[in-house]
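Entry details:
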Amino acid sequence: MNKSSIQLFGASMRLSFEAKFVDCVDAIDGEILQVTFDTLPPSYDEVERRTPYVLISRNFEFPGSATVEWHDGIDYDGGAKIREMVLKRERVSATLDRKMELDVTFRISDKKFAKLKSYLESMLGKRVVNAE
């Protein structure tokens, strides 16, 4: 059973869930990086989605920062930028520029965690705090 929650505090929101799938992918020889925290496998039909995910992406071909899109279990949203992220061995927490917070737990191998850490540091630079 997947536990997820959406908490509203005044005008801000916190999306919290356990990701069963964590994927790091690149395209165009690393010009585009993406990290996905998802409750469903990549092959899942998005039309049927009723559970959360978070996708962080950065396109190095153009100036600008990484952006975030998500599904909160009800609807899609995105375009937000990450102000700060704390990365731990089994958790990532982020504060976005839209009065929104993300808190995602996960279980992945050491090798996959090293790749996740590398991708997030490449995409976000000093906005990632590694709290291992």
The CA atoms of residues 95 and 101 lie 5 Å apart. The chain has a mean pLDDT of 87. The chain has one helix and ten strands. Residues 110-124 form the longest helix (15 residues).
